[in-house]
Amino acid sequence: MKWIRKCPVFFLLTVSGLLFSATGLAGMFTVYGEYGLQPVKQPFLVLMMEGIDKGVMPWEAWSGLPAAGSEVTAASAEPEGTGQSIEELEPPAGEAAAGRDGAGEAFSSPAAGMEYAAAEAETVETGAEPRVSAGNAGGAEEGTAEPVEPESYDFQEVTEDYFNDAVFIGDSRTVGLFEYGGLEERADFFAKISLTIYDVFTATVGKDEETGEKITVEDALLKKQYGKVYLMLGINELGTGNTEYFMEHYTEVVQKIREMQPDAIIFVEGIMRVAGEKSENDPIFNNAKINEKNDAIAALADNRDIFYIDVNEAVCDENGDLYSDYTIDDIHLKAKYYSLWKDFLLQHGIVRG
What is this structure's pTM? Predict the structure, then answer.
């Protein structure tokens, strides 16, 4: 132990380093699971340091450990990506952006308000009394319980005035729909370059037309009620966490929209895929990851007040890749092809009686 007295600083650094690393290891599947770091490439103590930066104290890593015999959830056990987000590119000359707030940072249309219909599956408890149809329809004996199936709806073609009470929320791709889709005079748009499901309610997405103050999506949805809400987010999130972690936040966003917009039809849009070459060569932004998240998003639809629509049907080739001729950078559509997105939306309207 003499060397400890001779090199106390070295001893303290060694012990603290081991302790910090152990803390990072303890919390990498729980409180640090969202960072998407890869411990093989970075020391475990980096997780703890980043956690402190984000307000997660070291002792929370130990308190967050599962009890003996319990299982770690898939969301925390399978972190993927590197926390990287896509760098949104400006359209090339001839396709200059219009209507952005400030220096291309954000844009919006008139003040918005939308509602979100939460996709809640009805649970029937054992022993619970079944519903009895009004008027005892169908000639059933009095008091006989008849299950009442909620009404579902099918897609149908609509005209452009269908979007007069619609709002679109999304990232740079939705910005492109606003600029080149031909719906900006009818629908409201609240979209921003690099917007994600994680900051959709906190990032500023435009200015209030009346006050000139910067507003968030939440501000907009609380101010005005909509008949339709379109949500497309997910491309920027491919480098952060896994699909379960993403859907945890996505579901919360949809539920919150429903609270603010109780009567609106909510369209959860599939993430638009990328071109084949990029998908094959990019470990993060590829169609395998996009398809996995789209399958999870589609599961939210109940075909009553939440509907899944996938524009990939209109812009992808037989391999399921974004047509390379349609894109300026393997990710974003060229201006003239946003009309395909608009036509797809016109063919997938929902009209409730």
Answer: 0.63
